[in-house]
């Protein structure tokens, strides 16, 4: 019985060369979640393959017709085209660094091929806002994405900051009144700004949060610790040093 054809959108997470002309693409799709696709001929030197490999850059959003079988780990794509043509994400150094950070964070959290359309639309919408946002919005975007992504995995940081609860306990994922016995905390301005970022509903609101580069770096380091504490086998973020350098 042939595999069924489905129409879906997908975000490219990672591309690996395969053979002389092909690639294996890891994608987060709207219909099927995390999937791997074998795409033949896109690296061919002929006119037929020319330029097609560009569509499989990490963070690219594609419209696809795919063959899908629950029994297979490696799927195939019948048709593909740009789902959105970025204005800045693939060409602007700063926005591209932010996008690569977002893609790596998403890749480290999504481990199974499970359908999760809400997460897909959040990720796609975030990339679209990054593309059209101002410099301030794009600089704050890694903080916004890192704080709001855990919601989809049951790891939400509770926004219970108050005059009394001013310490963010990274182990517990909530603000507490008393300094914990461990060092996995954010306090002072870091805790306050985190509570403000948690309140952001639309990325445009990031325009109103003025932070310097050094402060953003400190927050990103703290948020990486949060993921290390709560996501199994998280490891370290390879894109974070690049992002710190670019945003600096």
TrEMBL record:
<keyword id="KW-0227">DNA damage</keyword>
<dbReference type="Pfam" id="PF11967">
    <property type="entry name" value="RecO_N"/>
</dbReference>
<dbReference type="InterPro" id="IPR012340">
    <property type="entry name" value="NA-bd_OB-fold"/>
</dbReference>
<dbReference type="InterPro" id="IPR022572">
    <property type="entry name" value="DNA_rep/recomb_RecO_N"/>
</dbReference>
<keyword id="KW-0233">DNA recombination</keyword>
<feature type="domain" description="DNA replication/recombination mediator RecO N-terminal">
    <location>
        <begin position="5"/>
        <end position="82"/>
    </location>
</feature>
<dbReference type="Pfam" id="PF02565">
    <property type="entry name" value="RecO_C"/>
</dbReference>
<comment type="function">
    <text>Involved in DNA repair and RecF pathway recombination.</text>
</comment>
<dbReference type="InterPro" id="IPR003717">
    <property type="entry name" value="RecO"/>
</dbReference>
<protein>
    <recommendedName>
        <fullName>DNA repair protein RecO</fullName>
    </recommendedName>
</protein>
<keyword id="KW-0234">DNA repair</keyword>
<comment type="similarity">
    <text>Belongs to the RecO family.</text>
</comment>
<dbReference type="InterPro" id="IPR037278">
    <property type="entry name" value="ARFGAP/RecO"/>
</dbReference>
